[in-house]
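Hi R.,

As promised on Friday, here is the backbone we talked about, encoded as structure tokens. Could you run it through your design pipeline when you get a chance and send me back a sequence?
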């Protein structure tokens, strides 16, 4: 987004005097312009001159004027209006579920682009490229030309980008220049104004004659006029028309009491009345019919929508896609004609690699071609139905995605495209710089991130699980307490023997005291009656202690038996890289392997996680912890002490669909790259697939 400088601040004031000699009313108006708006001043003076020379709008009235220029270095109001309009747009698109980001474009575009390359990492630049794939450029024509030139020359955009430029000031020359500099698809929205069919009437609006410097297309001044100039002319006509109606209706309110100096000046009583007269009025000027609808907008504005198709060539032709006005809405179609089933009859040969859930065999009948299903197959079928092509699919002979060999050739899926044995390749195929050097990719159709597959901790049957609510040291303390209290009870009864009933044979031995204390602890009671006061006080304290311990044990046991928590110290890639107890690896020579290798060996990499991961993955030159296929890595996790680093989407599918529920995954929330469809280098289908 570009914040426009303050182009114009126009304030008009008026007063009325009476010229008795000529019986004319003199209306004095004033205007305030930005110091840089010299052309606005010229158009304003021309409009006043045209009104005084014609009697179409003013009959017995004449206009005089005063002009004041002010410093426009404080663009606060213009900025606020610009932000308010964009905020309304953001509110509407968010209601439709679209995600929109704002990007400010600095005045020095070259410096801005250079700073991006100096400060951003490759992943951040890739995400910035994605934001430029679909963009609305709110810029003036000069800034738009500079911006497009810079991003194209620095390879920040691809041929599948689509830009919409909205600006009222874009002329035909600007349109051709923007199309010449851009790639991809370009849509331009600009305001248009009616042109009289009769050339001789071009400078007439009814009986009102417009100065030829403004209406003659051959005049240099008219050729360089901006939209704001046209509206200034028509605004003066609209005000003059309101003045005339107020005078004609004899409803003019005196402005003698008004003063800009005195603070206690009363508001002008005719202000609201004048605004109502302006809203109800209308004129025919340079912008066409200028009037106000019920919502305060002009129902007669017209916008023209121009555009190009997708393509790599510069200087493509531009055509009119449609037009829009507040009354009838959009008239035309914004659909790119290039996509309307123009591939009917084309049969493409597709190479793939089996990778759940992207590509899986759904039917394998002897003597018949295999049938496939999965997310990538759904994408391919949707393209086939929309574009009209058919395809034949086969699996890469070596079941690999592809990597460069010692002799410079490529194997796997990418190799099939390099050697022209297949037209397109699709699977869980990520877009990497090395692959982009030998094949073409569509734009990404899904984000990619790295994840880790781990085995869940096994549940074992513990015969002593009933002891788990309390720690071993606590059990030892309880046992010691039982012995100690039993001994105290015996001593108290030995020192002060209780009076036993006649014929009672119960004795207060140490054994009986211990048994009595233990029985009361487990809430079973005892057989020895203790009647002395000291003993009963001791047992009362013991029973209270037993109640608290047993209640705590019961609560902890219930929680232990109903909630099973499997806690792991590995919750992220950072945790994985910092530990050495569980070895981990990935598929040898895969995109993940190369990504970790490049990051781990880069001395300027800020995150030490990759260097730690590379040391583990590269043990014994990569042969110790890495596998040749993803399925081998999954099996290694299931039956051994191992963690498999691979595509997060694939690992999540494996974990969810495992019949034994033996896996869990951890992922990286940052999308490192994306999945794309690979095509032969220079393929004519890349742009249409990307669109």
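Update: got your reply. Pasting your designed sequence below so it's all in one thread:
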């Amino acid at each position: 987004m570009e914040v426009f400088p303050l182009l114009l601040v126009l304030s008009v004031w008026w007063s009325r005097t009476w010229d008795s000699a000529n019986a004319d009313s003199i209306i004095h108006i004033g205007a305030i312009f930005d110091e840089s708006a010299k052309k606005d001043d010229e158009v304003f003076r021309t409009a006043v001159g045209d009104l005084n020379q014609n009697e179409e709008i003013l009959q017995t009235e004449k206009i005089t004027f005063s002009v004041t220029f002010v410093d426009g270095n404080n663009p606060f109001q213009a900025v606020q209006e610009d932000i308010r309009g964009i905020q309304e747009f953001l509110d509407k698109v968010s209601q439709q579920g679209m995600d929109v980001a704002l990007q400010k474009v600095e005045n020095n575009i070259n410096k801005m682009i250079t700073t991006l390359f100096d400060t951003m990492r490759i992943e951040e630049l890739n995400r910035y490229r994605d934001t430029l794939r679909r963009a609305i450029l709110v810029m003036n024509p000069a800034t738009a030309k500079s911006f497009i030139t810079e991003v194209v020359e620095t390879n920040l955009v691809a041929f599948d980008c689509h830009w919409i430029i909205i600006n009222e000031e874009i002329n035909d020359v600007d349109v051709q220049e923007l199309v010449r500099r851009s790639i991809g698809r370009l849509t331009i929205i600009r305001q248009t104004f009616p042109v009289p069919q009769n050339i001789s009437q071009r400078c007439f609006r009814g009986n009102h004659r417009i100065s030829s410097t403004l209406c003659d297309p051959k005049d240099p001044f008219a050729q360089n006029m901006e939209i704001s100039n046209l509206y200034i002319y028509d605004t003066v006509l609209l005000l003059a028309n309101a003045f005339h109606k107020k005078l004609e209706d004899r409803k003019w309110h005196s402005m003698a009491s008004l003063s800009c100096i005195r603070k206690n000046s009363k508001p002008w009583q005719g202000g609201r009345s004048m605004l109502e007269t302006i809203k109800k009025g209308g004129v025919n000027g340079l912008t066409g019919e200028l009037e106000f609808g019920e919502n305060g907008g002009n129902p007669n504005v017209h916008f023209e929508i121009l555009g190009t198709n997708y393509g790599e060539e510069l200087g493509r032709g531009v055509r009119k896609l449609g037009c829009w006005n507040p009354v009838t809405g959009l008239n035309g179609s914004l659909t790119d004609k290039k996509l309307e089933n123009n591939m009917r009859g084309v049969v493409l040969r597709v190479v793939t690699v089996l990778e759940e859930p992207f590509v899986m065999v759904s039917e394998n009948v002897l003597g018949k071609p295999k049938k496939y299903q999965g997310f990538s197959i759904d994408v391919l079928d949707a393209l086939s139905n929309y574009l009209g092509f058919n395809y034949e699919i086969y699996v890469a002979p070596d079941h690999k995605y592809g990597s460069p060999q010692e002799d410079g050739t490529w194997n796997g899926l990418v190799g099939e495209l390099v050697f022209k044995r297949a037209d397109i390749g699709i699977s869980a195929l990520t877009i990497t710089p090395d692959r982009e050097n030998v094949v073409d990719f569509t734009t990404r159709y899904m984000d990619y991130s790295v994840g880790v597959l781990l085995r869940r901790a096994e549940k074992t049957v513990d015969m002593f699980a009933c002891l788990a609510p309390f720690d071993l040291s606590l059990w030892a303390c309880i046992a010691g307490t039982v012995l100690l209290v039993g001994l105290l009870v015996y001593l108290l009864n030995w020192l002060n023997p209780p009076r036993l009933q006649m014929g009672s044979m119960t004795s207060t031995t140490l054994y009986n005291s211990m048994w009595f204390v233990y029985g009361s602890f487990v809430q079973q009671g005892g057989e020895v009656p203790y009647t002395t006061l000291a003993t009963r006080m001791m047992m009362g304290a013991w029973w209270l202690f037993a109640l608290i311990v047993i209640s705590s044990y019961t609560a902890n046991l219930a929680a232990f038996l109903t909630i099973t928590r499997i806690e792991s110290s590995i919750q992220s890639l950072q945790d994985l890289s910092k530990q050495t107890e569980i070895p981990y690896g990935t598929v040898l020579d895969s995109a993940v392997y190369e990504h970790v290798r490049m990051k781990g060996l880069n001395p300027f990499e800020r995150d030490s996680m990759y260097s730690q991961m590379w040391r583990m993955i590269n043990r014994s030159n990569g042969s110790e912890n890495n596998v040749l296929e993803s399925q081998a890595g999954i099996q290694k996790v299931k039956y051994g002490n191992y963690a498999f680093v691979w595509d997060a989407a694939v690992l999540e599918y494996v974990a969810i669909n495992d019949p034994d529920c033996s896996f869990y995954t951890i992922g990286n929330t940052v999308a490192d790259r994306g999945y794309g469809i690979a095509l032969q280098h220079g393929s004519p289908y890349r742009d249409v697939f990307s669109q």
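One thing I noticed while checking it: Residues 436 and 681 are 9 Å apart (CA to CA).

Thanks again,
M.
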